[in-house]
Amino acid sequence: MARPINDWNARQYDDFAEQRQQAAIDLVAAIPPLRGTTEPAKITDLGCGSGLSTCLLTERWPDAAVTGIDKSPDMLARAAERVPQAKFQQDDIANFKATQPQELIFANASLHWLPDHRKLFTHLAQQLSFGGILAVQMPNTLSEPSHQLMSELALRPAFAEHLSNLKSDREDLLTPMDYYDALAPVCDEIKLWETHYHHVLDGSKDILRWFASTGLKPYLDMLPEGERPDFEKQYIDAIALHYPSTSDGKVLLRLPRFFVIARRRA
């Protein structure tokens, strides 16, 4: 079956699988044991994508019932290939409501696409069993040159006709205090931190490739096919000014990521 034009492209996303997976590895490593037991039995991977995070969950907790949820058919097909022992469900994670309390809700690089995080984080914490863990990682990139340049390019006359109506639910992340206050009525043992990853890429074209399946995707989807190459070229030219080459010709893509781990209060 052909992939719908606006669907996510799992193979393209996996071009940088090892580097994309590092934040999920770090998040899994930071998850504490459940109270009274060492392993969660019911785990939801919220916005599982191509299964890069799901496979980490099944490796750490092989006896758990792990369910990955994602909106993209292409991502889910790739995830099912990668992690056949997990279950996968096609749904919009904005509508997530657990059929039974979960001992771990894991959301790696997915919740930043959703609005109204104060309500969202309180809601997710309420889907946990008592003592269950919410573990979240979100890119904090809207103020980075990589994303500022996307918005600036969209205003140029050559593209504004097609991109002027582009709307995204993506908002700036809340402050750490806001996330704490959203979770504190329901959770304790709340941990918040930010890590800045510096991904070593071969050049400016790789920065385009990195974001073509994520942040740039809404822009590329709205452009006529014949105008995408020009948009991509102008993006690469602009990127090169903000991400200079290293001594050996590589570039460093700085990518801040914000982490939250909270335990539901018993």
UniProtKB/TrEMBL annotation:
Keywords: Methyltransferase, Transferase. Signal peptide: none annotated. Its EC number is 2.1.1.144. The keyword Transferase applies. Residues 42-164 form the Methyltransferase domain. Pfam families: Methyltransf_31 (PF13847). One of its GO terms (biological process) is methylation. CDD domains: AdoMet_MTases. One of its GO terms (molecular function) is trans-aconitate 2-methyltransferase activity. It comes from the Bacteria. PANTHER family: TRANS-ACONITATE 2-METHYLTRANSFERASE, TRANS-ACONITATE 2-METHYLTRANSFERASE-RELATED. This is Trans-aconitate 2-methyltransferase. It comes from Congregibacter brevis.
